[in-house]
Amino acid sequence: MVSRLPVDVGVALWQRARAENHVRDIVDQARTVHDLGVPAVWFGQRQDHDATTVAAVVGAQVPGLRVGTSVVPLGPRHPLVLGGQAQTANAASGGRFTLGVGVAGPERDRRTFGVRVARPIGHLREALAVLDDYRTTGTVDRGDGAVVARTAAPSAIAGGEGFGLLVAALGAQSLRAAGELADGSIPFLTGPRTLADRIVPGLLRGSGGEPRRVVAGVVVVVTDEPDRVRAAARPALDFYTTVPSYRSVFAAEGIAHPIELALVGDEEHVARGLRRYVDAGATELYATQTDLGGATDQARTWRLLGALSRDRSAGRRSALH
């Protein structure tokens, strides 16, 4: 029998095939995982839905469940607009929302969204400063930057303050910004070695030594057929081998392909793998692509995630800052 981990273990959700209504289907899944004991759900930004809106709806419909985005790209989204969305999601969820953001990179922003971000780290720092204003002071007073030309307006809504703020950071500069201006990082496909050697130290340099949230995303499938599931998962992860920042992570982990970071196997195998992330400095975890083995394996995976999450009776804040 597996024992609980000392951290929360969430799950990434998205619409199932042939669902009659995209959002209602995700809400139904969220209710299911919450009933199993999963404390948090995360939503990736996609071309066909808005992750922050989905998080707001789920947070309003499933009391007690924490919701977040992993992640919203900053390039095509102005922080003044995104800050309003984040406040709205936080109010709708009763203060249980975390905004995860990231910088896709100049070429990807240009190719996908038709926008050009000349200085990605400068853009990130300014956007994080604006978003931090939203959640802390309720007034954005910024100007003369590359992102915000000039504003000094009240920006708070009742119940919207205090949302969590995380950055999908891998590089030294983005990690420093995340440690300085946000609650921490929400890395995906970064193994325990990278967490311990790069992510956690980078955040601490930015925070001046103050602990930060590290919400590690891991591909997880509990199954009795690991070879079959790995074969199905490999093409889904091929994209990350083309991204320089991820290639550097894979090199540091000593692997050739991100499938080697996937935790695919029985309950004991997965639990041991997740514990290595905790030992490396992860303060929270979330499992993604849990559907790769099919519906039966996904249900089994969700049951394990609920069993592993720390006891809810321990009494904790919905978002650790």
UniProtKB/TrEMBL annotation:
Gene3D superfamilies: Luciferase-like domain. It is an enzyme of class 1 (oxidoreductase). Residues 18-283 form the Luciferase-like domain. Its EC number is 1.-.-.-. One of its GO terms (molecular function) is oxidoreductase activity. This is TIGR03564 family F420-dependent LLM class oxidoreductase. It comes from the Bacteria. Keywords: Oxidoreductase. It comes from Tsukamurella paurometabola. Pfam families: Bac_luciferase.
